[in-house]
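Teaching soon. Invent one.


***
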Amino acid sequence: MELTSLKDEVLKVFMGKSPLDRVMANEMVKEKEREVSLLLTKLEKSEQVLNSKR
């Protein structure tokens, strides 16, 4: 949800309807994408551990 909101804000930046500047908005989105990627990696590793114990 948070990533979607940030992407929406980036669109507003490009349309000139946001107080954020483009660089700041894009950096915020990139940071959230990195966080999501890290969490997905952790999830996959946890699933592997769980499956190996079955």
